[in-house]
């Protein structure tokens, strides 16, 4: 009778949703509201039920001791569930019921679907939802959270515009929306508090508002938005033209016959859509026009070379006529060089025409702005950057002054990969967007020809930074630089492993590039999975700094066996890169993995020229180097099972960084990590 009376009292609460039905079958009888919110979140976010094992209604009275939960006065004020592999959704009316929450971090998972309405988190100051696969719009409710200082929604699949109401967030200090698929304009943010801002790698357009706040940021905060313009990024905004009308502001080429002019105006230029194939007749006419133009250019070059060769055969030394000014004497060697360059030019034109004649198109990933065509890419001036295990890399300067990096994949290595398989894989790789990955912008394949187009990174590779040039002696980097680069590479690699369940397969210092602000960005990722091995590990002339065998895990070096790359073999390669960072020594000079830890530590100190002693600051730096070395040695464990995951490695690196920041009393770190009541 008593039990029936209690049920009658609780029944209205069950109907209203205030009390979860599970409360009647748990101990204690009533689950605290914050514990209920966490359990509801787990139900939708942890679909397999094996990530948040400690979250249980049976232990709800001790929910403040659950993983990632911090309480004050028995209310949740901080919840951090990072890199846990959550693959569900951030369901509405779950965590958003935590009205005392100050800091929320769900970064580094695989949470999908839209971000829910967050207006219930009235006390929230810090929000990290980056490195997931959230889709849909940026929730406008974020701008209603008046205490919010830090917002990071980067590296997701968010679409739509940046809410204009963001300019009313008076305390905003940190805003990252980069590496999404956002469109529309940049709102006129002008908060005096705004210090960190990034909207790069989206599809934003129009002029950037010139406000005091936005003017503080470098062009890198806006890069890879081809349709943005304005004073801040030094890109002129051109007036909008009717769709079918050529822009008079666009530089025009030399006059062509009327039929060719009309063809170029209607079918060429930056508005070319690679996904929509032109009719066969139009394609042939387009190829013919480009072929005639390039052929005409080659004909002029050949005639010029013939005239110079005739001049060389004359008995008296002639001067080459030029525009008004001093005449340039042409000696025999110079003429021979020009003749050779002319022949090389003809060969290049022939190859270009062959490629253009093949059936294929430049494929841009979904949501990627189509800023150039295949024809423009093939017309670009090219500079050889290097040859590696996967192919040859060029710097290409397009006629619109856009600079891209083009990798021509080695046909022999990709021979076993069919067209459809290659397209499926490139579709997955093209979806990777992270500040520490060089983004794949487009790809092309036709028969044996496969090209990948990436952003150009202006500061070279990590290998060049570590080992210097032939004219300069290599010197080990300062420990703070080692830590920064280690974290950058760890962030990118962890994102590949955690968010997309892919592997790099070819990590080495020459595949880590340095961006405009010397941020480390990983390149050549996820290509080795479909590549056949070289008999001698590396192609000829690849150089010692790109020797893949030195970075390969022990299980990948077994003879007569093609090892399929794994996340643990990536971790081993990362450990080798860390050792290279610490010592300035190429991996071929590193001690074997069987060496005792103390002996390795001594060797690292010797490599850095560290004889001990020094002041307190030097001793602190030495201690941080030893901590990084411990991470490197854990990554270089002989057995894959003994190596940590990349997310665990990243957490170790970040703990070292936090310890260093605490010693240095870094004000910015205090702001990012402290949530006052």
UniProtKB/TrEMBL annotation:
Keywords: Leucine-rich repeat, Membrane, Repeat, Signal, Transmembrane, Transmembrane helix. It is found in: Membrane. Its main location: membrane. Residues 1-20 form the signal peptide. The keyword NADP does not apply. One of its GO terms (molecular function) is protein kinase activity. It comes from the Eukaryota. Residues 379-656 form the Protein kinase domain. The chain crosses the membrane at residues 287-310. Pfam families: LRR_8, LRRNT_2, PK_Tyr_Ser-Thr. GO terms for cellular component: membrane. PANTHER family: LEUCINE-RICH REPEAT PROTEIN KINASE FAMILY PROTEIN, LEUCINE-RICH REPEAT RECEPTOR-LIKE PROTEIN KINASE PXC1. This is Protein kinase domain-containing protein. It comes from Cuscuta australis.
